[in-house]
Write a structure and sequence with these properties.
Elements (H helix, E strand, L loop, with lengths): L4 H15 L7 H9 L4 H11 L2 E5 L2 E7 L1 H9 L9 H12 L7
Antiparallel strand pairs: 1-2
Helix pairs in contact: 1-2, 1-3, 2-5
């Protein structure tokens, strides 16, 4: 394991802060943290540390809490036609290059 349990919790909180009000909050920091995940075990530990989190609109919870992968998909989609953003494709390419089997 690349990080301790407490480090995964800290990283999960930073990931959440990067996107809880919308992905524009801090995509470069989000991408940087996700790129630190080198193995399936790293991703699994980050997902577990993240748990279920809300997104917010004008300070109010928006919908039901989502897990990390659902929140990434929700925040990185670009339109209702199912097309995803360049940012999501960048994260997917990084995961594929490391042979990560989790899918966003």
């Amino acid at each position: 394991m690349a990080f301790t349990s407490n480090e995964f919790k800290k990283l999960a909180n930073i990931v959440n802060d990067c996107m809880k009000y919308g992905i524009g909050d801090n995509f470069p920091k989000l991408k940087n943290i996700l790129s630190l995940m080198k193995t399936n075990d790293d991703w699994q530990n980050l997902i577990l540390a993240y748990g279920m989190k809300n997104n917010y609109l004008y300070g109010l919870p928006l919908g039901k809490p989502k897990n990390l992968m659902d929140n990434l998909r929700y925040n990185l989609k670009t339109n209702e036609n199912g097309y995803f953003s360049k940012e999501l494709n960048d994260i997917r390419k990084d995961m594929e290059s490391k042979k990560i089997t989790f899918k966003i």
